[in-house]
Amino acid sequence: MLLDGFAQGDWRHLLQDYREHKISVGHFSTQAFAMVKADRLTLLEATKDKFKIRAGFHELVTYCSRKGFRLVIVSNGLEFYIKEVLRELGLEKLEVHAAQTQFCADGLKVQYIGTDGKQLDDGLKEACIKSFLKEGYRVIYIGDGDSDIRPARYAHQIFATGELLTYCKEHNLKCKSFNSLNDVVEALKLL
């Protein structure tokens, strides 16, 4: 939506290359969002009330909080709008790892920073899950897209829908399907 409304250039060509795995997410985001010259407030105003939160999100947050589980959002999206959505939901304390954004006159500067503080061109989700495993966490992964395939393989338990579910089924990767995050909460109660 932000690229459609504000990019000054052919960002769709970059998207096609990314979808065909010709370029990394870091390359796509860096190049595509550099075409956006709008400021933070303009972009946040354009996205206001346009996000749809998956059903059961609040229930998942509440359940994890009650059980003492560390709930982490790791996204290939941009941190500034993810955090704004969470703030509007009253959930600004949730841990988020996503593309960090600087607003500059010549376009947005986007970069992915791993949990070790180093810049990544690709694999933020994978780097995060490896870091959590190294810290001794049991990782339960919830995902729906192509970018979730590599990192989900490291998880102790996968909850999948969309492209991730299709991949898991085609490659006999054990997972539990879900429609809403309420399904995940109910399954977590059985673990």
Across the major sheet, the strand order is 1-2-3-4
CATH topology of the domain at 2-50 and 75-122: thrh gene product, domain 2
CATH class label of the domain at 2-50 and 75-122: Alpha Beta
Elements, N to C (H/E) = HHHHHEHEEEHEHEHEH
β-sheet strand percentage: 15-25%
The chain-level mean pLDDT equals: 95
CATH arch. level architecture of the domain at 2-50 and 75-122 = Alpha-Beta Complex
What is the C-alpha radius of gyration, as a whole number of Å? 17 Å
Shape: globular
Helices, by number, come to 10
Low-confidence stretches: none
Secondary structure class reads alpha/beta
What's the main sheet like? 4 strands, mixed
The amount of helix comes to: 40-55%
**What is the number of E strands?**
7
N-end to C-end Cα span: 38 Å
Topology:
Elements: H1 2-6, H2 11-19, H3 25-33, H4 40-47, H5 57-67, E1 72-78, H6 79-88, E2 95-104, E3 107-113, E4 119-120, H7 124-134, E5 140-143, H8 149-152, E6 157-160, H9 162-170, E7 176-177, H10 181-190
Q: What does the model show?
A:
With 191 residues, this protein is of the alpha/beta class. The chain is 45% helix and 19% strand. It has helices spanning 2-6, 11-19, 25-33, 40-47, 57-67, 79-88, 124-134, 149-152, 162-170, 181-190, and strands at residues 72-78, 95-104, 107-113, 119-120, 140-143, 157-160, 176-177. Helix 2 (11-19) packs antiparallel against helix 3 and helix 5 runs parallel beside helix 10. It is globular and about 50 Å long.
